[in-house]
Amino acid sequence: MTLVDITVGDHALIARLEEALAPRTCAAFRAMMPYQDQLIHVRWSGEGCWIPMGPKAFDLPWESHTCYPRPGQFIFYPGGLSETEILLAYGEVRFSSRFGQLPGNHFLTVVEGMEHLTDLGHATLWRGAQPIRFALRHVQAESAAAVAGA
To answer: How far apart are CA 74 and CA 87, in angstroms?
Structure first.
């Protein structure tokens, strides 16, 4: 199991890469590590925040794709109809763009720090863009099993 340390503003999260569900998406994301950007509040989708990544499209298949990520789930939209982006749901989300509803690949799930998601979302909505940083965490098998059961 691969864990990712995520820092957003003043909040620290730990997430699990969903390598069994979205292997190619996870491999593409791993290749970007460590990754830093700005997290902003979504425009159309509901209670979520996103990282706009511009016009660079990734050649990825649909893997564990959804238009309705659950709180704590990150989805990756590889580009095409709309710009490439990563979205984090902190509440109810219907992933969409100016072109309508879109599916994104669920590739990362928060396993520690879920209690911070609402505050993080509200800070992004009312105070603006928040810096976000993703870094791979290497853990021993027994520690990974403990986090997986959390």
So the answer is: 5
Type of residue found at 3: L
- What are the residues facing 5 on neighbouring strands? 14, 135
Under a CB-based contact definition with an 8 Å cutoff, are residues 49 and 59 in contact?
no
In a 3-state reduction of DSSP, which class is residue 105?
Answer: strand
Q: Which CATH class is domain 3-148?
A: mainly beta
Q: How far apart are CA 80 and CA 133, in angstroms?
A: 25
Residue showing tokens 């190619």 = 24
Instruction: Report pLDDT digits (tens) over 83-120.
Output: 899 999 999 999 988 888 889 999 999 999 999 999 99
Neighbours of 9 (CB within 10 A): 16
Q: Express each pLDDT in 28-70 by its tens digit.
A: 999 999 999 999 999 878 899 999 998 888 999 999 999 999 9
Taking CA atoms, 71 is separated from 43, 91, 131, 143, in Å, by: 17, 5, 20, 24
Half-sphere exposure of 15 (CA within 13 A, CB side): 30
